[in-house]
Amino acid sequence: MNGQSSKIPVLEVKHLNRYYTVKKGLFEKATVKAVNNINFQLEAGKTLAVVGESGCGKSTLAKVLTMIDEPTSGEIFFDGQNLLDCSAEERKALRQKVQIIFQDPYGSLNPRKKLGTIIGEPLKINTTLSGPERKKRVQAMMAKVGLRPEFFDRYPHMFSGGQRQRIAVARALMLNPKIVIADEPVSALDVSIQAQVLNLLMDLQDELGLAYVFISHDLSVVEHIANDVIVMYLGQIVEYGNTKTIFSNPRHPYTQALLASTPKIDRTKRQKIRLSGEIPSPLQLPEGCPFQSRCVHSESLCSNQRPELESFDQRKVACLRIKEISDTLQ
Amino acid sequence: MSLLEIKNLTVEFGSIEKPFRAVDAVNLRLDEGEVLGIVGESGSGKSVSALATMGLIEFPGRVRAEELKFQGRDLLRINDKQRRSITGADIAMIFQEPMTSLNPCFTVGYQIIETLKVHQPDTRKQMKARAVELLEQVGIPDPVPRLKLFPHQLSGGMSQRVMIAIAIACNPRLLIADEPTTALDVTIQAQIMDLLLELQEKSKMGMVLISHDLALIAEAAGQVVVMYAGQVVEIGTAEELFYTPKHPYTAALINSLPEHAKGKKRLDSLAGVVPGMYDRPSGCLLNPRCQYATDRCRNEEPELKGPLKRQVKCHTPLGE
Fold it and tell me: Which member of A62, A98, A323, B160 has the greatest number of CB atoms within 10 A?
């Protein structure tokens, strides 16, 4: 895993929590633990994927990392600098280093603004460059992401989904960020277009040394693009490790079910594990392991004690019965 | 006799002088107990063909076909009343977004009973009992109190189960599932697909499964149709299509999947996009995006040729 090398990670997250309080009836309040005790490291030029089903806290994590939302507690280090200790000025500077690409390119671009204005906006807000200088930078960036120069004065509705996502990528890269958070960047696109955008993201990573936090529910995309992968379930990490290690031999029952549920063209590859039931409401999490209600291996132990993320077989897994389960499988 | 036989189905929108063909001369055949998969990117005319079969294309759209036969009866040549008695009962459809296709103002029970009331009227008690039975069949636990729930009280997977219950209420012979699991999570998707295939197998009905997800189609369907820009470009069994594709478009789609890029970093991608209303090329519609395109492809439109169950619309099919 990442910890083995001596490089300072460009992004490090320790014990990160984000809780939301929601009203439940007139006087009662309930807490939703959207992101619960998350720890990870990300090196420059590497890709960390976060996978999980809807409601597992992937997007909340993206919001906290990009400083759109404040964490309830925990520490976030960018290049060794603790974000939560920073003054407002320092945070503004740090914000430029972390950019985000949103899921839906039809919703994330202002329909009333021209392409040049949209891509140039980060420069206008954060730098003191003059108009012509900004235009030059925008045009250079457009060439880099594969948008033709004559697009400069066009509006977003004139573009297809794939081109719009290129615009979103160009905007995210205007301030030379070190980290790009990509929140489901290709899930709204068709497969042939998806491949174009994924290639673009990988090329830019090689060229600029970007670190990606790649949030996705599509496991085949993740397997292809990511170095490390985090599997989340109801706000918690259930498995974390090298992509190859996890995809070739998933250990947590949830990861196993997730991989078994993904359709593959090669029919013989897949064994069938089916989860019964659906994700429980995050408002009333069960005591103990959050996955117990859908897990085929759950026992009385699982409903009493909350599993911690522990090292096991070259990765980290949060499962109380992990040793017994893997013994029976072998 | 086939269950469904479509010949030369064309759907046009826009003005008479300059129509836009969303579906262009499509032929489909489906037998009882068969699962037919239709794949293609957005804008390829998959959903419009399904809606045309259901009779759900509204006025400015024009549906024409040489034949649109269901169990031997031509749906375009019977009167509206007769057609309505078939759609919803013998032909049923499941839509993509379960959350928006249920009416938020009525309870789940009401919406299931509504279908029964139209097609198989019975006493209220009987119909309620049937609704409970249907919910049980689609795997909703504790169905009696669930009848009183409104759609917003259900999760995505539950809503899709209710949609399926409504669709199978009158024991249809043909079920059209238009992207039934696209809005759902993978673990739920697997559950819903298992349920659909199990119901299909049990009642031996024909099913048309529409999806943009090649892998999903590969696992579920027997016969597969690949569509591009409103036209059928390739037909074959799932096995033939996904292991030995003959049309360059099918091959490109399969190669652009990350699953197929083992060992290399860059994915094979297909440059460009599906042509829209105003930028249709002459000749083969794929020619601007096709790496094998010749002058012939740019001028002359290829025909869909080959044996009935294995057809390709290309001048220079792969592997020949």
Answer: B160
